[in-house]
Amino acid sequence: AVIKLKDLCDLGRTSLFYALKEMGFKFKMTNSRRGSCEQSHVVSMRNVFLRKYIRNLESEIPHDFVFLDETWVFSRGATKRTWQNDRAKSLQQLIRLQM
Out of the domains of life, which is the source (predicted)? Predict the structure, then answer.
């Protein structure tokens, strides 16, 4: 199989494999939690919660918080293995590394 990406490259499957390996990528198990935690709607909801939480702490009569639940990511909803570069520990770091 030959991969053609908008006339930028014309690589065979094996050549692409070796090129990715040389750039430091590994084909390994996907951590679906990493990508889910950095999705824009999750980040937005987390920011809203933290603003309310801090506002509560700074109020005259702050309410006590009790955390009862933990968010679980549906593990079967993502691919099992993907090409990953271990230099970045988060998607934000990955974006900064590419700039």
Answer: Eukaryota
